[in-house]
User: Which sequence fits this backbone?
């Protein structure tokens, strides 16, 4: 199954290369600290929940954490009130470290980088499935299973919808782009997705009055 999509960072400003590098540094420190306590999965889930439930859902919190007018000490106190006793000590410590270095504004990117690192350590390769139409969970699982079997790898999938994608389906694993030839059944699936996309366009563009 795909992770909760820290791609939902679509509403976040794009990072420059320097900030991406910094996010990776924090991500590695968090993963290593969690591994020492044997709680990597729990810590990453808790951090992702804070990003999804607080930073993305509560604009005031996001603004406070990103504001240079709020001191690191004040941000740390807010984190204590918000998370102490509700998350693992390792998760709380990670948040405090990020706050102390005034990097809460890139917490979503830190969590996403930590997820990618965790997948790599567990032998999962990053895969982006771009489809012409949205897929339900069962369809997503079927595609991931088919491509994983065809390539003989374990995948960490993310799904993206692009109505203009040719053939209905494009699969990118790490830096390699595969067309539907990775598996014969994907050709049929791609054709079905393409037809669904065409019907969706027709329904949107041509609405007939009864």
Assistant:
């Amino acid at each position: 199954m795909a992770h909760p999509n820290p791609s939902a960072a679509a509403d976040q400003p794009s990072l420059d290369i320097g900030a991406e590098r910094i996010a990776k540094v924090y991500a590695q420190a968090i993963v290593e600290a969690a591994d020492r306590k044997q709680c990597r999965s729990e810590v990453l889930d808790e951090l992702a929940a804070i990003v999804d439930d607080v930073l993305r859902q509560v604009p005031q919190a996001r603004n406070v954490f990103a504001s240079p007018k709020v001191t690191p000490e004040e941000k740390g106190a807010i984190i204590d009130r918000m998370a102490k006793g509700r998350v693992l000590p390792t998760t709380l410590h990670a948040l405090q470290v990020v706050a102390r270095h005034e990097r809460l504004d890139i917490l979503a990117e830190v969590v996403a980088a930590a997820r990618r690192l965790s997948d790599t350590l567990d032998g999962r390769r990053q895969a982006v499935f771009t489809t012409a139409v949205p897929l339900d969970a069962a369809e997503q699982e079927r595609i991931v299973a088919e491509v994983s079997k065809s390539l003989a790898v374990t995948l960490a999938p993310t799904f993206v919808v692009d109505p203009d994608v040719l053939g209905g389906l494009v699969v990118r694993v790490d830096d390699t782009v595969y067309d539907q030839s990775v598996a014969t059944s994907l050709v049929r699936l791609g054709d079905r997705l393409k037809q669904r996309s065409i019907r969706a366009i027709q329904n949107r563009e041509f609405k007939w009055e009864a």
Q: What stands out?
A: The longest strand covers residues 124-131.
